[in-house]
Specification:
The complex is a heterodimer of chains A (75) and B (166).
Chain A: E1 2-8, H1 15-25, E2 32-37, H2 42-53, E3 56-63, E4 66-72
Parallel strand pairs in A: 1-2
Antiparallel strand pairs in A: 2-4, 3-4
Chain B: E1 11-16, H1 21-36, E2 40-45, E3 70-73, E4 76-79, H2 90-104, H3 110-119, E5 123-127, H4 128-133, E6 146-148, H5 150-158, E7 162-165
Parallel strand pairs in B: 1-2, 1-7, 2-5, 5-6
Antiparallel strand pairs in B: 3-4
Helix pairs in contact in B: 1-3
The chains are: A alpha+beta (75), B alpha/beta (166).
């Protein structure tokens, strides 16, 4: 159940992470944020971001050059 | 906004010494990303880095001193010899090219990264000595940064997990 979608397609590092961090502030704990990006570097970046912040990377996939990340806010 | 001595967050400290458009990116990208990942970040702006704190930014690049600079042009990467910097208009052209690439590729502007840094509570310190040296007034700089000297930086650095000189 996705609470919010953040579209950062066309934006380059570090904007996907920075915008996601901002958007996560408005996501209730336990809910998820879906991020759509075109920056290939975002794949490893979101893994690192989630590991460091403790948020859960529920899903990381790509379709037609659009990367989709599902991040669950844990705290 | 002093870092909380009791917090378990990692700390990063940056010294920013350069003020050209290309050199402005590493400190602001690292600072904003680290802040987004929960680190407490401090940036000490000195010498030409101080120009990055001016209210109105007017950043350039030069081919001079950048022997590895290549621009994507005509489907290839064209190297820019240092010497062409002496030709009038070349550095302005390189700056325009860089700014256009930044816009086209969805890269954040330095103004945007700087605002995001301030919003994320990145601590910014302007080197007092540099301000005196180049006769900058406090009003020339944006609101937010504090003034400090080398000892201020050293104390911050002793408490930081990551220390970078840019």
């Amino acid at each position: 159940m996705t609470a919010q979608v953040l579209d950062v397609k066309g934006l380059n590092c570090p904007l996907p992470i920075l915008r996601a961090k901002k958007a996560l502030k408005d996501v209730p704990v336990g809910e998820t944020l879906q991020v759509l990006a075109t920056d290939p570097g975002a794949v490893k970046d979101f893994e690192a971001f989630c590991r460091t912040t403790g948020n859960e990377l529920v899903e990381s996939s790509v379709q037609d050059k659009v990367y989709k990340f599902l991040i669950k806010r844990t705290g | 906004m002093a870092p909380d001595p009791n917090s378990n967050a990692k700390r990063m400290s940056l010294i920013v010494t350069k003020g050209s458009l290309d050199w402005a990116y590493p400190p602001f990208i690292l600072a904003t990303t680290a802040a987004a990942m929960g680190l407490e970040v401090s940036m000490f702006f000195t010498f030409y880095g101080l120009t990055l704190l001016k209210k109105k930014l007017n950043l350039h690049v030069s081919t001079l001193g950048n022997p590895a600079m290549e621009m994507p042009m005509f489907g290839m990467h064209i190297g820019m010899p240092n010497l062409v910097s002496a030709i009038p208009g070349v550095d302005a052209a390189a700056t325009t090219m860089m700014k256009n690439l930044i816009k086209k590729k969805g890269v954040a502007s330095i103004e945007e990264l700087r605002s995001m840094a301030l919003e994320s509570d990145v601590k910014m310190i302007a080197c007092q000595m540099t301000m005196d040296l180049f006769e900058y007034k406090r009003e020339d700089l944006i609101e937010g940064p504090e003034l400090g000297g080398a000892a201020t930086y050293i104390e911050t650095a002793t408490k930081s997990d990551i220390n970078l000189f840019i």
